[in-house]
Write a structure and sequence with these properties.
Number of strands: 10
Number of helices: 4
Helix content: 25-40%
Radius of gyration: 15 Å
Order of helices and strands: EHEEEHEEEHEEHE
Oligomer: single chain
Distance between the termini: 41 Å
Largest sheet: 6 strands, antiparallel
Length: about 160
C-alpha cells in the first residue's frame, strides 16, 4: 500500500522564454510516476536574487501528492531541469529552469543533497506568496509558524502577478 505525501515545489526561470519553460515543467511534473499535481499558483515576475546582470524571473509554486521519497522526488526534479537544459554556471545565476523542493509534509530534514524545509524559503517573496496562493494555511515546519505571518509588505513589493 502506498503512502502519499504533500510536496511543495518552487519553479523559476529567466532564460529562453521563461513562461514557456514553466509550462513545459508543469507537463513534466504531471508525468512523474506515483505523483499528481494538486494545485498550481499564478505566475509572478520577480527581480533576480544575487547578480542583477540577468533578466527578471518568472516564478510559481505547485502542490504535489506523491508516493516518492524526498530524495527520489529531488532526483526527478533535477532530471526535469536537465531536460530543459539547466546549466549551473554561477550561484544565483540565470537559468532555464529551477525546481526547488520547498516542503515535504511537515518533515525537517538535513541531508547533503536536500534540506527540508528549503532553508531560504521564509525570506523569499517569490516563494511565499505563490505558495500561499495554493495553501493559505500552510505552516513552516522548522519555525512552527503560519507562512502567512512571514509575508511582509516589503516581500509583497518584490513581485508582479503576471
Amino acid at each position: 500500500m502506498l503512502t502519499w505525501h504533500d510536496a511543495y515545489i518552487g519553479l523559476g526561470s529567466n532564460l529562453d522564454d521563461p513562461k514557456a519553460q514553466l509550462m513545459r515543467a508543469l507537463e513534466h511534473l504531471d508525468a512523474l510516476p506515483l505523483t499528481q499535481r494538486v494545485a498550481t499558483s499564478p505566475l509572478y515576475g520577480s527581480q533576480p536574487v544575487g547578480p542583477q546582470d540577468q533578466p527578471d524571473f518568472v516564478n510559481a509554486c505547485v502542490h504535489l501528492r506523491t508516493a516518492l521519497s524526498p530524495l527520489a522526488l529531488l532526483d526527478q526534479l533535477q532530471s526535469i531541469e536537465q531536460r530543459q537544459r539547466r546549466v549551473r554556471v554561477r550561484h544565483w545565476g540565470p537559468r532555464t529552469l529551477d525546481l526547488d523542493l520547498l516542503m515535504y509534509d511537515d518533515r525537517v530534514m538535513h541531508h547533503p543533497r536536500l534540506n527540508l524545509p528549503h532553508h531560504e524559503m521564509h525570506q523569499r517573496g517569490f516563494v511565499l506568496i505563490p505558495l500561499l496562493d495554493i495553501a493559505p494555511t500552510l505552516m513552516h515546519p522548522g519555525m512552527n509558524l503560519p507562512l502567512s505571518t512571514l509575508v511582509t509588505d516589503e516581500l509583497r513589493g518584490t513581485l508582479t502577478r503576471l
